[in-house]
User: Fold these one by one.
Assistant:
Number 1:
Amino acid sequence: MSERKRDYPSGAEKRKSKRKREEVIKKVPKISSFFHRQDTVSDLDWKDSSEARSSSNIHSEIEESQAHTSSDVHPEIEEHQVNDSDIFEDCNIISSDRGNFGDNLSECERKIIFKLGPFKPQGPFPKDSESNRPFSAYYYSYFNQAGIKLVRPWLCYSNVLNKPYCHFCWLLADRQNKSYSSAWVNGVSVRSNFTQTILDHEKSQQHMNASLSYNNWLQGNTIDTLLQSEINSKITFWRDVLHRIINVIITLASCNLSLRGHDSDSGNFMAILRLLSNYDATLKELLLKPKGEINYLSPTIQNEIISLLGTTVRNNIISEIKKAPFLTIILDTTQDLSKIDQLSVVFRYISVTENDDNVPKEIKICESFLGFIAVTDCSAAGLKTAFLNLTKEYGIDLTKCRGQGYDGANVMSGIYGGLQTLIKEHAPNADYVHCAAHALNLVLNDAARHVREISTFFDNLEKVYTFFGNSIKRWAMLSDDPSEKYLITLKKVCPTRWSSRNDALLAVKKNFLLIMKTLYQLNLISNKKDEREECKNIINILESYDFLVLVTFFSSLFEIINPISKALQHENNDLQKSRILLSNLLNRLCQLRNQISFNSLLNESKDLAKEWGVTTVFKNSRRKITKRFFDELSQDERISDPESYFKVNVYYCCLDILISQTKERFQSLCDLSSMFEILQPEKLLSSSNEEILIASGKLSVKYSKDISVNLCDQLKALKTCLKSEIQKIYSIKELIELLLVKFNSLASSFPEVITACF
Ligand SMILES: [Zn+2]
């Protein structure tokens, strides 16, 4: 059997070490006893002080009488028991005798020595080996010229080293100081005129500083508390700094501003900090720190903070998404600067904010951007894998998906093998809806692509922009003109955002006269042949009646489409609103497609032509209509009148494309929207019970997993129960707010209605 090893001392060992300790303690006086003794003795000393007027006398006396006195005092010391032995045990320190310690003190040793106080044995003291003189306890205090007794608390005697030393200097002298002297720290010899040696030391700067520190400690400002308060103030300072830095970063980020310029010292981040430092002491102090010191302003730290903030924001969004019963995904790919495809991921869902009693207080339709995924494989399967990995990583349940929104790209929306079909494998009811605003953009692009005159028109707008934009001189002539007011800066036509066409058109329309004037001027003064040619070319374009009529036509068209597009992009928009907006658009487009509207367009154009000094004759009258395909209208060939030609081949053609494309592209949206139409407050109130039955039946069939057949009964009950309230509201969102927030106590009665609304 192996011997069991103890990791704690046995009883015998404990007793042995206790005995040992007691022996040592017996030899060593309890430090506090000296303070006690001095107190009692001082009374006596005061009485006797008349006997000793001069300090020099005293000292000689001390040296002589040292032998008797020390023997008197010594027994008293031995009586004192060590009672706070636990402290001693902790660090194995039993006395503060300098001789028991090495040159470097641990923090724990220092603490205990402070607690123990100066080590002042009362003798008898052995004679110094060199000078053959003994130390005396009388050195511990002295009488000044006036006979006042002054104690030297710093003066100690090491029984181990047999040398006097300075308690204060040992513990607190600044060792880094150039004039640091280790003599009194390690102990000095008692030589002749030792009194003078003591007086010299008392006067030294090192000793006085050490005494001051010791005094601080006695008054409760221990090294620890001093250090601690310094540490605390540092902590507060850096906390304040980080607080400010984070706030600046959040402000910049929420304004979509970059943090840095080309080097780390310029840019918005530093500019704001510098500005704030004029009013804020913390930042002022931070910015005054010398170069190379930590200041938490480096780009690395900025990026770290941004990524930390980003993670927090993303986690909040994810937890919101997870809470939502249903969600819609909106995905799109874009190429970044390095030509890597980035899949942007947006979730649309309803977030219900609750108050402290878990009662819903606000309902919000949220569209949250979760981030970009870099995709190397741009096939539908590749996109799907990338997207599924993301949802897996964040723990988002895709079976809750009830809708998908993409652009028209085949990879995304294709019915066969497109991403939408692949996602539907996971969420069968995730119906694909073409992004409405995007679809509208495409509708306009279709029109521009299929009608040659229109595409030329936008090319020409672009030409005007390029002509002026490519030359600083021309741009300056345009914007510095003193006589005319330069209203809107010329804008570039951007193919993916049709609203840019509107901006470009407006800019040319408002600045038309100024542009013409500048062009004529240039044509006269320019000494470059190319420039003059280009000038003439643009003048010809702008002065044509065709151009002018198209300007008028598209101005009125954009006046209709622009607000609708803006409304479609609004975050509070829903399927119902989109449908209403689009049907409005269709109506207005249809209204334009007749002779009366065309005539009024021509009239308007003629007014403008008068103002601009343009002849009102269509230019393309000499166009040869040669090749026609068999499916095109045969009458086209007979149109020789340029006005009729414009009406049929440009005006009607454009409107027809707009109308048919709007209908086609928004079909899925309208289908889905009509599915939920019954939840529309107005529709619900106006529907008969039978209509409600049919509509809710459709919903519960399609979304059999989410909505039960009880929906019909609940809708009917809701209609009767809250009729007056429903009359006041207009959208499905308001209906659910009504149920969940305003009439929360009723909510549990209409679970299916609530589900359907979500
Ligand atoms: Zn000292």
Number 2:
Amino acid sequence: MSTIEINTPTEARRFACPDCRSGATVQIIYGVPDDVLRTAADEGDVVLGGWLTEIDAPTRHCRACGSEWVDADEYVERLHSS
Ligand SMILES: [Zn+2]
């Protein structure tokens, strides 16, 4: 079981939920997930948004209150390069 560091303290502030201010937010991934993303989703590190990418679709999901909004980051790129 791998442990993936999602949010550094800096990122936790940057990506804090606009509704409840929780730092427990994750990126929403669109497209067909590969094994890395499936594992991350199983462990709750990302949310899979479906196979189709919609324009202006939300890219952050709050695990505390369920709110979703648009705020891109490079988490997936880091995930694949680690
Ligand atoms: Zn929230």
